[in-house]
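Slide 14.
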Amino acid sequence: MEKIYAYLKLQGITVEGREETKEPEKKGKAAEAAPLTEEEKAYLQEYQESLQEIPRLTAEQEEELFLRHGKGDTLAGKPLMEAYLPEVISIALAYHREGYFIGDMIQEGNMALVAALEEPESLDRERLLGKVREGIRKTVGEHQQQKDQDEYLVEKVRRLEEDVRALTEDTSEKYSVKELSIILDMSEEEIMDVLRLTGDDK
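Slide 15: predicted structure.
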């Protein structure tokens, strides 16, 4: 039933009377971040080493840059962006999910960072990190939605293969897509999509 509820949710359909279970989330930190793979650890170490040469800002320098940025000084954006690259890593690690390469998450966070600094509005540390966090959360959500859709499709393929095998196991009779659609209660388009994935659409 949970898989059915998940699929309906992906289609924008809510089930009346069913309460959604929300994961607890602390401010600035996602719940249950997935551990890194060895490949991700190696990438992260190399990336962090590449940031060592970037000069760190004092609190006074950072405050001055935010003030300049708020007044439209475009030159203030670059040093702020560079100073906050390590912060993006921390946020990406907090929201890391299995199957989503940490390097891709960091890249999405960096893009959100640059986009925020390009906007003509006043920023401070909390607002800037909030925009980075929002950008990473959005891409994680899209990634999870795609993963759920893929898993649902894989389940449909498995079900179709099992049902067709059960129908044809003890008979030489072949069924048309239209007949399978009626027997399996699936649309002809769905069956053809699944058959294309399995290479049995000829």
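Speaker note: Confidence is low (pLDDT under 50) at residues 21-30.
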